[in-house]
Amino acid sequence: MTTLSVVAIRLTRVSIPLTMAHAGSMYVIQKTERTVIELLLENGITGLGETWGTPDVYALAQRYARDWLGRDALDRIALREALGKSSYDNRFGRNGLATLAGLDLAAWDATARSLNMSLAELIGGRKRESIDVVSTLPAAILPRAVSRKELTDHLDVLSNTKLVVQFALEQQRKSGFRSFKLKSAAYSPEWDWKLLNELREAMPRARIRFDPNANYGAATATELCRRLDPLGLEFFEDPTGELEGIARLKAAVKTPVATNMWVVRDEHLVPAIRRQAVDVVLGDLFMWGGIDAWRRMARVAHAYGMKPALHSVYETGIATVANLHLASALPEVEYPNDSGLHFLSSDVLTEPQEVRDGAMRLPTGLGLGVTLDRSKLENVTLEGAEIRA
Fold first, then answer.
1. Residue 18: which residues within 8 A CB-CB, separation 6 or more?
2. Can you tell me whether residue 147 is helix, strand or coil?
């Protein structure tokens, strides 16, 4: 009799060029690196997952994979023990959580396929077939990844804001985007104020998020956000640093305030609730450590008056589709999903995951409902490993 026992895990670290240079306050990049995960069960079914593609996470995934061999994919508590039995035992911080989340996703996918269900059905029910998604807007339009000095020189020329507006309108024309996230370099409040006003004028009905990644000081961020209040933005995402700084800014503005940097663990929820620090918990599947943790966060946040939403960076179709399933399954999710897949020059899936009229369709089929394209995967592979008993 076959079981849901894990018999092998294949890991492939990939590097995929972006079709534009992503500029923000943390970095300027033109590629994304991910670790693709294939988890094989004793019953012959393979589940797909992915996680961050740094060398540290890739090495950690191999370590955790060895601990998972022979375990039951349905026993998620036992699988989580590879990370530790408590937050105290997690010696690898967010790298450990991200690694666990990638393996966890593959286990959920394999389990759903084994039970003849879609991932959304396994999580809680397939309630929506179409999910609105967000187009990232870089802080500036650059020809390539540049140094911080080159970026700030570009931002000193305020007329360059028009290039970002043109870029946004092109995304709207190509894919019908109705939701946008402007990444800020957190260098020039005047640049951000001018650009956001121009974006609002060019797209009066668009949902626009503003994200400086907590790199403005509290006083500067509060003054800037007060000036931006009349624009009716969707929310200010991590406008400044630390929970207390965000809470004080939130009290000074009418626009909702979101974070994906300061509420990223179960133990962060209580102080956020007590302090009424944020309106939106923009949870990242990998920073939260997997589907169970993300679902738990969404329900707690919603119960205490906060709204959960799905954060994403430049992920392959695997994680992008996983976020679609989460949004479909959980009625607490009302905001459009972050998504960067449309800026990847290639994907690793056979099925194209297209954005049409600003939304993505939930794939049909079992589990995630997608298949790995071996040829596409090989074209972007940096290194690989297979762990067996």
1. 29, 30, 31, 32, 314, 343, 344, 345
2. coil
Q: Is the Cβ–Cβ distance between 268 and 242 less than 8 Å?
A: no
The pTM of the full predicted model, rounded to 2 decimals, is 0.96
Q: Identify whether the C-beta of residue 328 lies closer than 8 Å to the C-beta of residue 131.
A: yes
Q: Are residues 208 and 293 in the same domain?
A: yes
The contacts of residue 76 (CB under 8 Å, 6+ apart) are: 104, 107, 292
Contacts of 107 (CB under 8 A, 6+ apart): 6, 39, 47, 49, 73, 76, 79
Q: Answer yes or no: do 83 and 150 share one domain.
A: no
Whether residue 59 is found in the same domain as residue 166: no
Q: Which domain holds residue 379?
A: 6-116+373-388
Report the CATH number at residue 71. Answer: 3.30.390.10
The pLDDT tens digits of the residues spanning 264-318 come to 999 999 999 999 999 999 999 999 999 999 999 999 999 999 999 999 999 999 9
Same domain, 95 and 175: no
199-209: pLDDT as tens digits? 999 999 999 99
